[in-house]
Amino acid sequence: MSTTTSTLPPEFQDNMESIRIMGFWIFLTTDLVLFGSLFAVYVVFRSLVGLGPTPHQLFVIGPVLTETLILLTSSFTCSLSLYSARINRVPGAIAWLIVTLGLGMSFVLLEIHEFASDVLNGHTWHQSAFLSAFFTLVGTHGGHVSVGVGWAIMLAIQIGLKGLTLTTRRKLYAFALYWHFLDIVWIFIFTVVYLSGIA
Amino acid sequence: MPIQRWTLHLLRLLFPPQVLLPDIVAIDIGLTVAVIVIGVYLTRTRRWGWLWHEWITTVDHKKIGIMYLIAALIMLFRGGVDALMIRSQLIAPNAHFMGAQQYDEVFTTHGTVMIFFMAMPMVFALFNATVPLMIGARDVAFPRLNAISFWLFAFGAILLNMSFSIGGSPSAGWMSYPPYSELLYNPGVGENYFLLSLQVAGIGTIATGINFLVTILRMRAPGMSLSKIPVFVWSALITSSLVLFAFPPLTVALGLTMLDRVFGASFFTIAHQGMPMMYVNLFWIFGHPEVYILVMPAFGVFSEVVPTFSRKPLFGYEAMVGSLLAISFLGYGTWVHHFFEMGAGPSVNVFFGLSTMLIAIPTGVKMFNWIFTMWGGRIRLTVPMLWQLAFIPTFVVGGATGIMLAAVPGDYQYHNSYFLIAHFHNVILGGTVFGMLSGMYYWWPKMFGWKLNQRQGTWAFALFVSGFWLTFMPQYFLGFEGMTRRMATYPAGLGWTTLNLWSTVGAFVMGAGFLVMVYNILWSRRYRDWDVTGDPWDGRTLEWSLPSPAPEYNFARIPMVQSRDEWWAMKQEGRTDEVKISATTVHPIHMPRNSAMPIMLAFAFFVGAIGLIFAWFWMAILGGLGVIAALAYGSFADYSEVEIDAKHVLQTEAQLGRVES
Fold first, then answer.
1. Which of A26, A31, A125 shows the shortest C-beta gap to B214?
2. What is residue A2's predicted lDDT score, i.e. its pLDDT?
3. Which whole number is the average pLDDT over B239-267?
4. Taking a C-beta distance cutoff of 8 angstroms, is the pair A193, A130 a contact?
5. Could you say which DSSP state residue B117 is in?
6. B632 part of contact set with chain A, CB < 8 Å
7. Cα distance from A160 to chain B (closest Cα, Å)?
8. CA A80, CA A189: separation in Å to the nearest integer?
9. In this predicted structure, what is the pLDDT of residue A6?
10. Same domain (yes/no): B21, B95
11. What is the pLDDT of residue A132?
């Protein structure tokens, strides 16, 4: 038993912390069902355009591709932060966390820009069921990313104040799970919403 | 005079004509007086500090369980009064005791309160009170989250109950189907109250689901494998996982309706190609598993009550667990049976009709297993057992009429008639409520340390159950006679008059049963019959190995579990001294510290919800900031524990006579 556990990272060796990580995994399943429901709504509603634009008329691939690349890169830097924590480098962990949240912020800003230009062109979500579903699905993901950015800021401060304790390690791990989860959801949004919309 | 105009506008918003009816104003005055009296009483007896330290900031699962139970009983009263108002209106043809609008509000709040604010907290009360004790744990996995769940539920309940005196009650039924729930047909803030109160309570429910799933999977005493946990704990495990997959679609359904109403989206409006049936699908993807969320814990309670009062181990443990799993799995594939009339075509309807009928098989297995457990046992007719015995015929009738409703062509005939009303009251009251009351009487001594009087309990039972049959049997026939649900009144000469009269008489008998139950509780509290043994029923599972009520740390010594009915096995094998400690074996115990963060967080949600209900966005933002602040406060404050030192543990246990000499 002891030989196998010693290779585990500290946050898994402590029983209470590993229970909390399990709790977070289960929270993510509920979030997955939430997104699943929103995807179902979107897939049904995407042809219900009313007098508004069709997906093909609405989407511009350039900025969305940039957003995708930014978010994928941020997933990588998030892992680097976790890796730095595993090899006990506090500055590295904080620095990569800051890079991650910076990338997250620019993702959110690009998305806000996309939404704002849609609305300025008169395509509010009042216009059609499709637009309602589109803004809600993509906006819920964007909202999650924004929450993640806020979380990362507090986490960076906390690691700075307290160092890499068992608790901050577990929190960093949970944040990484959350961030990768959002990345996966985005890949589905990119495919189901944007790519199949433009095609 | 802009200020004057603004004040007038505010007053009209807060107090529209529908909340100025004389009966509502009378209730408002009564409530205000009650709050003042309670406040004065607490100040006079200097109990504010006690209330804050012992209850409001507690993270102890046993106290949270008690708070859930009290809240559930209060809500049972409220929902029950709604039911009596409905039945009073229908006692005779052409009765106008209430106007149509008020009638709609009353049946909406009756359904919403009973499902979300009575049945759910009743289930969580029993989970909290017993699950950690049954698995040999000192608390749940996330004690502070548990308190957050409770306070979110409590503020959700306050929101819904506020609506009838401030702003107006929702009136679109407990399912709130669009387009009627949309702004165009349902102006005012009532519907917003419905959406936001359920949203706030729903977040708490999801958190409870996560909490108990992790608790049962990870916090069991050594030796207690999943094949040894009591069936009630299995039911809690399965219920929790059902919550995880059922509640997010509800969150989405409610959220999208709110976006339509408050932020002008076009999901379910007829204009702009919105699609109301989407809401109906999402709602029932939640709603059907929800009925199993409500009834599984009742199955769990009966699986504890029957073996205890038959002095036999449960017949077919594996089949009981397997059937719970089967029901929970099938329960996700049946949601369309709530709206066969959608027009999805025969093949879809047949699939959902068949999957619904399939559920009868595992449910039948459970019925037979309870009966086989009783077979040849030494049965004691205590109050919990009486509720179980009443449950069996009631639930069989409810299940059989469910099969009738699942038959698609038949359903076209009696859909949304009183036949349906009778059916679901038959299963939800006869299943969940009978089960929860059985569990309440069963675990009451463990929760409070004293027993409920048996004779009064039997009277309450007899009145409630006979009132129940008298209320709902006539409703099946009313359905056949063509009476549809939600009719505010009906003309004479349709053959409905006598049946409705009997139904109303039954409802009042049931109400009398509830009053006797309250009397039973108050009387038993006045003349307390203390449970000094900790094992008043000669129980089988681990919670009965503890004193009543259990000390704050539950187990001074975590048991090493060897068999399924561990406490029974201990008693049979003369190992009961295993629960005792001595000066050499005692250890200090770490327990989570009380926290004010849960109620602060829930209050912030409450403020934000009010902001959204009245579309005061500054207030919604304020609430959102409050949520962030509470979360940050909770995260930066170290998750602190208190140490109860060994001497204190030894002292407490010695007083309870649980120290080896």
1. A26
2. 44
3. 96
4. no
5. I
6. yes
7. 12
8. 25
9. 62
10. no
11. 96
Of A30, A130, A150, the CB nearest to B206: A30
Candidate from B253, B263, B273 with C-beta closest to A128 = B273
User: Quick one: B357 exposed, middle or buried, by C-beta within 10 A (0-12, 13-18, 19+)?
Assistant: middle
Model confidence at A45, pLDDT cuts 50, 70, 90, reads very high
pLDDT of residue A3: 46
**Residues of A with Cβ-Cβ distance to B270 under 8 angstroms:** none
B165 and B314 share a domain? yes
Residue B587 belongs to some domain of the structure: yes
Count residue pairs from A and B with Cβ separation < 8 A.
Answer: 110
Confidence band of B2 (pLDDT split at 50, 70, 90): confident
Q: Are residues B482 and B608 in the same domain?
A: yes
Res B123: pLDDT: 97
Handedness of CA B63, B68, B71, B73 (dihedral sign): negative
**ipTM summary value:** 0.94
Q: Whole-angstrom Cα distance, residue B89 to residue B501?
A: 10
Minimum Cα–Cα distance from A52: chain B residue: B272
Pairing of strands B641-644, B589-592: antiparallel
Q: Write out the residues of chain A at the interface with chain B, using a CB-CB cutoff of 8 A.
A: 19-20, 22-23, 26-27, 29-31, 33-34, 36-38, 41, 44-45, 48-52, 124-133, 135-136, 150, 154, 158, 167, 171
Residues 6+ apart with CB under 8 A from B306: B314, B370, B373, B374, B385, B388
Q: What is the pLDDT of residues B171-194, one digit of tens each?
A: 999 999 999 999 999 998 999 999
Residue B88 lies in a domain: yes
In angstroms, rounded to a whole number, what is the distance separating the alpha carbons of residues B349 and B338? 10
Fold annotation for A76-199: Four Helix Bundle (Hemerythrin (Met), subunit A) (1.20.120)
Total count of domains within chain B: 2
Q: What average pLDDT does this structure show over B477-492? A: 94
Domain containing B435 equals: 47-655
The answer to whether the CB atoms of A23 and B265 lie below 8 A apart is no
Same domain, B28 and B71: no
Please give the pLDDT value at position B546.
95
Domain edges within chain A: 76-199
B533 and B495 inside one domain: yes
Per the CB < 8 Å rule, is A48 touching B244?
no
Do residues B11 and B74 share a domain?
Answer: no
Is residue B583 pLDDT above 90, yes or no?
Answer: no
Say whether both B122 and B7 belong to one domain.
Answer: no
Question: B109 with B32, same domain?
Answer: no
What is the 8-class DSSP label of residue B228? T
Q: What is the CATH number of the domain that holds B111?
A: 1.20.210.10
Query: Are B559 and B566 within 8 A, CB to CB?
Result: yes
Percent of chain B with pLDDT over 70: 100
Please indicate, yes or no, if residue B660 is contained in any of the structural domains: no
Question: Does residue B661 sit within a domain?
Answer: no
pLDDT computed for residue B133 by the predictor: 97
